Amino acid sequence: MAEKHSMSMSKKKKIVNTASYIALGLISIVWILPFILLFIKSLDTGNTGVTSYVFPEKWGFDNYIYLFSSDCNFLQWYFNTFIIALFVCVIQTIMQFMMAYTLSRFRFKLRKPLMNLMLILGMFPGFLTMIVLYQVLFTIGLTGPNAVPGLILVYVASSGMGYYVIKGFLDTLPKSLDEAALVDGANRMQIFIKVIIPLCKPILIYTVLTSFMGPWGDFVFARVISLNDPAGSNVAVGLNDWLSLANKSLHFTHFCAGGVVVAIPVMVLFMFLQKYYVEGVTGGAVKG
After folding, report:
1. Of 104, 226, 238, 287, which is the most exposed, with the fewest CB atoms less than 10 Å away?
2. Which residues are registered as beta bridge partners of 44?
3. How many CA atoms lie within 13 A of 283 on its CB side?
């Protein structure tokens, strides 16, 4: 009887696993199919506009060559996006780690109210302040061609409020490490840099990736601040302009090629840092 029950459970488990793999396979196909089609269209050299066919009549890399030509603003958009993402990534990571370390290791009078306040403020979408932020940046001359420093300023302004995941990870590290370092004569800054940071590699990489990806793919706020000026636009704003009614018939395949080039850095980062990214998510998902 027990043997039959065991065989029945084994069959059920195989059926469930098979169904799960089929479902995951279908989801993967649905997820990756748009990118495959985008890459195929980027190799179409017969017509740069929107076409009714999927597979190109003429294959080549002309669209990619156009992106790096002097007639195209793509390099300017790409450079703007990289500068914004790089500065935001560095500054945001530093600010979030410092805030998380402070709230994890120190106990002060307004600690709980401060954490609750940041939690409540984080529930409101950033779009609510878009008009006000635009007016402020416009007043100080950080819109249009000068949108890059303006976007960096806005992206890093509230960085400290994203401390939650990092704090959860730091809470798992024993405070005895800090105490031992204090006994050995280290100050708080030395403990933070030489003791805590080396132990936070997974969550550090997770924070770097998320901080980099945010401004890399931003469109709505970047469009408002840049005013569609090529000198201040990022790749999302620039590529979207190629999809307008006036440009779609001329630059659709260029848009596809640009989409592929924009996706490459993020794909490479995830491929090499996926292990640490997962460890950072799970390591920080604890109650602090």
Report:
1. 287
2. 59
3. 22
Show the tokens assigned to 208. Answer: 């770097």
Taking the model in full, what pTM does it have? 0.81
Distances in Å between the Cα of 183 and the Cα atoms of 34, 177, 179, 197, 250 are 58, 10, 6, 19, 68
- Answer yes or no: are the C-beta atoms of 186 and 195 closer than 8 Å: yes
Q: Which of 192, 190, 188, 159 is nearest to 173 (CA)?
A: 192
Closest CA to 77 of 219, 263, 257, 231: 231
- β-partners of residue 59 are 44
**Structure confidence at residue 278 (pLDDT):** 59
Strand partners, 184: none
Q: What is the pLDDT of residue 109?
A: 85
Q: Which residues of the chain have pLDDT under 70?
A: 1-9, 274-288
At 5 the pLDDT is 54
Q: What is the pLDDT of residues 117-135, one digit of tens each?
A: 888 887 777 777 788 888 8
pLDDT the model gives residue 285: 46
pLDDT at 22: 92
The candidate with the shortest Cα–Cα distance to 166, out of 95, 271, 116, is 95
Provide the sign of the torsion angle of the four alpha carbons 37, 39, 42, 43, taken in this order: negative
